[in-house]
Amino acid sequence: MTRIDGHLLDPRQYSDPGQLSDHRRLPDHGPSAAQSRRDAFAALFDPTTFGHIERLGIGPGWRCWEVGAGGTSVISWLAKRVGPTGRVLATDTDTSWQTRAARSPLEVRTHDVAVDAPPVEGFDLVHARLVLADVPDRERALASMLRALRPGGRLLIEEADPALQPLACPDEHGPAQELANRLRHGVRALLAERGADLTYGRRLPRLLREAGLRQVESDVYFPLASPACADLETATLRQFHPDLTAAGLATAEDIDEHLANVATRTMDLATAPLIAAWGRKP
Predict the structure, then answer these.
(1) Using CA atoms, how far apart are residues 57 and 79, in angstroms rounded to an integer?
(2) What pTM did the predictor assign?
(3) Which of the four pLDDT bands, split at 50, 70 and 90, describes residue 19?
């Protein structure tokens, strides 16, 4: 057991989230916090995402499905790469992030990858980033994405693995860093309680091979001490503030102190490692 602000947390909840039947996403406490998180994710992870897709050979005429798009940065880039002869389908359970009507070759559609049937057309590329670990039926979601690929099509999945590196400050050299790590443990406890699989990323290579994909490869991206890490930390704590305090995992004073520490831009903050795995459908 681990004690966080007087609460005992069972470490098994991090290693076996499948035992948790009540899956609920953490609520968005205001559009500004959610948008700030989307912006930070884009700043942190878009370059490595684009690099992976470039290496998969994307070009004019490709048909792409962006699962759980959550924003416009990736799909706008895809639309430019595939050009007017290609197609980009962006799906999400909540498309409120769309601020204007999509134009060809881009289409935005409300869709739940773990519930709804996959699009019938064969895609050259199916991509999901930071989606599957939060989906209740991950096996069904992955199978749906595989069915949507054409023979020879590429699947690229990117998932964080918070249990692989659980610290906000790997260099825990003082009280500010200790507080940051304590709050990060609290956020992980909330995520695990709501059914997120905090170890899903490391299993991706095996899952893609077992699904029959060929030429499976994987790598890990681990941002540290980036300004965007601080932006993401600030947005995350502001968004989860009510949940952390309501669960007794932190006090309002703890969170305010941590946010003030982050604002000094002197903390070497880290994100969870982002594990990418990709392969080709036979």
Answers:
(1) 14
(2) 0.88
(3) very low
CATH code of the domain containing 206 = 3.40.50.150
* Full residue range of the structural domain in which residue 149 is found: 2-280
pLDDT at 31: 53
Averaged confidence pLDDT in the chain: 89
User: What total number of domains does the chain contain?
Assistant: 1
What gap in Å lies between CA 167 and CA 263, rounded to an integer? 18
For residue 151, give every residue at least 6 positions away whose Cβ sits within 8 Å of its Cβ, in sequence order, or none: 122, 281, 282
Does 17 score more than 60 pLDDT? no
DSSP string of the chain, one letter each residue: -EEETTEEE-THHHH-GGG-----PPP-SSHHHHHHHHHHHHHHHHHHHHHHHHHTT--TT-EEEEET--SSHHHHHHHHHH-TTSEEEEEES--TT--S---TTEEEEE--TTTSPPPSSPEEEEEEES-GGG-S-HHHHHHHHHHTEEEEEEEEEEEE-TTTS--S-SS--SHHHHHHHHHHHHHHHHHHHTT--TTTGGGHHHHHHHTT-EEEEEEEE--BS-HHHHHHHHHHHHHHHHHHHHTTSS-HHHHHHHHHHHHTT-S--BPPPEEEEEEE--
Question: Is pLDDT of 18 > 60?
Answer: no
- What is the reported pLDDT for 100? 85
Phi-psi group of 212: left, alpha or beta (phi > 0 → left; psi -120 to 50 → alpha; rest → beta)? left
**How large is the average pLDDT for residues 180-186?**
98
* Confidence (pLDDT) at 13: 35
